[in-house]
Amino acid sequence: MIFIMKPGASDTEIQHVVERIEKKGLSPHVSKGTERTIIGARGDEQKLAELPLAAIPGVERVIPVLKPYRLASREVAPSGTAVSVGGVKIGAGHFMMCAGPCTVESLPVLAETARLVRAAGAQALRGGAFKPRTSPYAFQGLGEDGLKFLREVGDAEGLPVVTEVRDLRHVELVARYADCLQVGARNMQNFDLLLELGRVRKPVLLKRGLSATIKELLMSAEYILAEGNHEVILCERGIRTFETATRGTLDISAVAVLKAESHLPVMVDPSHAAGRADLVESLTLAAVAAGADGIIVEVHPCPEEAVCDGEQALLPAKFTEMMKKVKAIRKVVA
Predict the structure, then answer these.
(1) By the 8 A CB rule, do 68 and 219 touch?
(2) What secondary structure letter does DSSP report for 33?
(3) Which end of the chain is more exposed for a tag (fewer CB within 10 A), N or C?
(4) How far is Cα 159 from Cα 124, in angstroms, rounded to an integer?
(5) What would the pLDDT profile of 79-131 be if each residue is shown by its tens digit?
(6) In 3-state terms, what secondary structure has residue 316?
């Protein structure tokens, strides 16, 4: 950690910073220039990180050397980390396509969708059993029945299951059926939920919040990692901006930044970003070209009859067509 002192900082102020550093068990190194003094702190800077260091008299600013997201940082695993979702790997050169309906409506619809997406090349099945909705009157999901359907269909088609957990009380229940537990955008900073998921030994798909910075996403991942669960997948799903042409603004740059900053796999959800089925393919291909480790996309055999988000769901034939293009781009960028 580096302390940059204000021009003209007194010897007393400089000595005070040195004493604060030593008190925390770090070694100070003072470098006096013609106009200002710089003080370096060698050691575990985390011991200083929680203090209001900029409030120390004479200090102009403080520059951390290490990232605050210590476990999520690329420095932990420079070559990247592969996470196994029910035997399917994602990250560190492995790509995973996860597809299925927005929500589990019925066993027949889910079974048909799973069969079609698997035939097209999907490696995992998505579907919501507990749905966080903007309106309390909207369909909230089938609950445990939906989880049972997911498990039954996933096993039948040989597809691992990815589904959302929205409540701290449901973690154990969802973990009983799912291969990967998804944290939705609205829960990205539900820290009690994140801590509980950190104690579960199953992969967690963590979606970026609607207005969250990349740093905030990584710090949320840190909550899970710090509790001992190292199987975390990051997901860019569109953020809230001034633009209204799409449901959200897909931050393609986030893929590149996250890959540079973190060793964790990065997925993209083009369905929720677009909010329109006709844009999903373009956003998917852009994400793959940018280096995403996986895509999670909504597919429905009859979108016009979908209970939830039918306007952004792909028809199986369109998904099949898109998968051919995804594979072609992967050959170039992988």
Answers:
(1) yes
(2) -
(3) C
(4) 5
(5) 999 999 999 999 999 999 999 999 999 999 999 999 999 999 999 999 999 86
(6) helix
Query: In the chain, what are the domain boundaries?
Result: 2-63, 74-333
Q: How many CA atoms lie within 13 A of 115 on its CB side?
A: 8
Interatomic CA distance for residues 317 and 299, integer angstroms: 10
Give the pLDDT confidence score for residue 308 in this predicted structure.
Answer: 86
Return the beta strands (E) in 21-123 as ranges.
27-32, 37-42, 59-63, 83-85, 88-90, 96-100
Return the pLDDT at 66.
76
DSSP string across 178-217: -SEEEE-GGGTT-HHHHHHHTTSSS-EEEEPPTT--HHHH
Q: Which two tokens stand for residue 34?
A: 């013609």
What's the CA gap between 51 and 67, in Å, rounded? Answer: 16
- State the DSSP string of 225-283: HHTT---EEEEE--B--S--SSSSB--HHHHHHHHHHBSS-EEE-HHHHH-SHHHHHHH
**In this predicted structure, what is the pLDDT of residue 133?**
63
Q: Strand pairing partners for 268?
A: 236, 295
Strands 180-183 and 2-5: unpaired
SS3 category, 162: strand
Is the distance from CB of 43 to CB of 76 less than 8 angstroms?
no
Q: Give CA–CA dist 324/317, Å, rounded.
A: 11
Straight-line distance from the first to the last Cα atom of the chain, in angstroms, rounded to the nearest whole number? 37
pLDDT cut 70: percent of the chain above it = 98
What's the CATH code, domain 2-63? Answer: 3.30.70.1140
Give me the pLDDT at residue 307, please.
Answer: 87
What is the CATH number that goes with domain 74-333?
A: 3.20.20.70
Kindly tell me the sign of the dihedral angle through the C-alpha atoms of 326, 328, 332, 334. positive
Positions of the chain with pLDDT lower than 50, given as ranges: none
Phi/psi at 83 (5° precision)? -105, 135
The full 3-state SS of 133-150, as one line of letters, equals CCCCCCCCCCCHHHHHHH
